[in-house]
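Entry 14. Ran structure prediction on the chain below.
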Amino acid sequence: MKKKIPLFERIAGKVISATGSSRASMIAMGAIVVWAICGPLFNYSDTWQLVINTSTTIITFLMVFVIQKSQNKDSKAIQLKLNELIAATKEASNRLIDVEDLSEEELDTLHKFYFKLAEETGKQLELKQSHSVEEAMSNTKEKLGTK
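Output, structure tokens:
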């Protein structure tokens, strides 16, 4: 059964896809060139300037909402994926699930903690050092409950 996607989401997805293309950029550039060429025909009048100003303002105003909708959806999906990784990883702290709901002050406190942890880790490990294949295999077996 195919799930029904709300109308605004379908439209926003199509608009984002279309406006993020090379073709859309070329059309926008073409419109500006046509507008500029028309300048001498309209004696660079106030109406000539008003056409481009009004057009770009309306398009920008509408695109803000479409882009914000898309960003919110993407952000929520990424947060859910990260939450799943945290929840599924035995060593990870479940306190970080939904960390995006914390206050700015709480986030700053966590940031300072992890910054300090990263500094300490950096002192102990070389940047180019990696985990061994054996260690990765062991972690995978442990997660799967096999030894």
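The chain has two domains: 1-101, 102-147. Will compare against last week's run tomorrow.
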